[in-house]
Design goal:
The chain is an alpha+beta fold. 73% of the residues lie in helices and 15% in strands. It has one domain. The protein has a two-stranded antiparallel ribbon with strand order 1-2.
Length: 95
């Protein structure tokens, strides 16, 4: 499949994009929905109406979540490596 043109709407503005697969389009559409939901939540929860403020809050939230996920992934990776080393050591001592 070649590229396909799509349009994403964020905060009332349209952004043309190209995607190379249906999976990529679905990922982008999911992100679009998440952004729309977060913007609505912040607007209702904090009574903020300035779109720049709402977008800034949204970006901060997503960046925070991304950093937390990276830290968790690094922790899991270290845990897996530690367990693999323990298994390797156990195998070495039993042979």
């Amino acid at each position: 499949m070649g590229t396909q043109a799509i349009t994403v709407r964020i905060a009332g503005k349209s952004y043309p994009m190209t995607v190379s697969s249906p999976q990529e389009e679905e990922t982008i559409r999911k992100a679009e929905r998440q952004i729309r939901e977060r913007l609505k939540m912040y607007e209702e929860k904090y009574a903020v109406t300035d779109i720049r403020d709402l977008l800034s809050m949204c970006v901060l939230q997503f960046a925070t979540e991304s950093n937390e996920n990276e830290e968790k992934a690094g922790s899991v990776e270290q845990d897996v490596l530690s367990k693999l080393k323990a298994i390797e050591h156990a195998l070495d001592t039993n042979t």
